[in-house]
Amino acid sequence: MKLLDTFKKQYQKNKEQVMSMSDYLVRCKEDGSLYASPADRMLKAIGKPKKVETSKDARLSRIFGNREIRVYEAFKDFHGLEDVIEQVVSFFTHAAQNLEESRQILYLLGPVGSSKSSIVERLKSLMEKEYIYILADRDGNASPIHESPLGLITEEMADELGVPRLAASNIASPWAIKRLREYEGDISLFNVIKRLPSQLEQVAITKTEPGDDNNQDISALVGKTDIRKLEKYSQDDPDSYSYSGGLCLSNQGVLDFVEMFKAPIKMLHPLLTATQERNYKGTEALSAIPYNGIVLAHSNESEWTTFKQNKNNEAFLDRVYVVEVPYCLRVTEEMEIYKKLLNNSKLIESPIAPNTLRMLAEFCIITRLDETENSSIISKMKVYNGENIKEKDSNAKSLQEYKDGSSSNEGFFGISTRLAYKILAEVFNFDPEEIAADPVHLLYVLEKTVARQRYPEDVEEKYISYIKKYLAPDYLNRVEKDIQTAYLDSYGEYGQSLFDRYILFADHWIQDNNFRDPDTNQMFDRSDLNKELEKIEKPAGIVNPKDFRHEIVNFALRCRAQNNGKNPEWTSYEKLRRVIEVNMFSKTQDLLPVISFAGKGNKEDKTKHDSFVNRMRELGYTERQVRRIVEWQTRAMKA
To answer: Which of 403, 436, 512, 596 has the most CB atoms lying inside 10 A of its own CB?
Structure first.
């Protein structure tokens, strides 16, 4: 099978390659990748950024203040975290330049479910893309700490080879020194292995987790003696040592230290020398073990705060490069996060009604925002999303004003993305007859979830008020538009009739002509025409009817001239379309004969109802959702 052949070729490509030390040293003169630092390799794997001029996009210009931003393909699915990713890349850039960051721990700080772990996992995956070169003995056995072959040479020898001194600044491991003695200083007897780092095989990439305070020691980081080998080797022999610690396995790569500050402080001490001096001591009387890797750590704010407040930890704190990872605060990007979740699940094919993801995103975002004095939190949410709402809310502030008036804690509280996933899963599975999601079920699940989480009373009241005072009324407006759109398609002839009648009456009113209705033989003078026109205009709030009539008639006359004297479609002119829609839907009960699922009295109503349902399905609803949403909308309108 072609698949099997492809797999075999990929395996062969990733298989380690062995070369002699002399070949390696010769190639070092021409190819810097043979001794590239972990930060260099990480930057290469991340790739060059795409520069985006936000001034050319109205929404982005409001969010980023017209500044140029850089977007990285490797992190394209981390929505709303542009600044966070830029800080992470900046860390590796400075580390590759051998600045202070090269001796620091990259620490991601943020609330639960804010993508800290996802960023770390992505960095580990990127580290697997670039080859490393590992020192091996004459039999081809790789160094247990995956050390660089250049650890054997001095900085003076590096000058002679034509490689940077920095590449040869690490010491040799006890394992390498023992073999160097056996070879009587002949480094040509060593070999070099070229291979890709691997998370599965723990080659240059590994993970360490804090254990119990009572039984965890530094061996989780630095390794320990393998008692099974003591029959053959002495306790201080490098070959009796088990290089199983996180620092041993992550040399030339990445150490992922999960929830680092939950670990006993004594366990963290080897990290200080490993990062600052690039070597550390084992648990036995061995010489120092080299380390040239990247330590990644991440935890929640509570652990960091506790650790930071302890004055005894000042030396450690000075060696940590903190990148804050808040929750996403933009509705559009939050929706993309949910879509990514759905795309990776079996729900990808399940129906999801319009506005479901938006409603969930809006609820989560407003719970993460600080309340702002003299401004609605809803307006703040929309401004953060890059929307221009000055015309709708005169009290709305600019994005910078909102940020200046917010605390540094904004984005570190509220509904987590992880909880939002659970809510979405419950919504999809709410109806036992249909795996689907819609806003009506979402509103119910949100209220139930808030009550179930047992928030403080004031927080619970605030979250419930968001649902009832904003989400439900806002969705009522949105679903009315969907219903009206589907209804209009069933009543297109009625809309066109209103449009033609308005144009006819307005034209005669402008010309100051009397008009006789050919169907009823009724005579309308200018005053009567004005009354008929006002019946259409007033419900829509037209404040300057004279100008409005002239504008509409001029538009219709131009269209007639281009269309053989025929009026344009009633939906073709947005201003008048809105006026007609308001008239058509001024009374909710007028829609009920068509949109309700009650029995139809005649065939015409049944046909129109079926047409309405089909139009709603085209908008993205299932038939069960149409029935549920129509019933909810009817009850909400009565309430």
So the answer is: 436
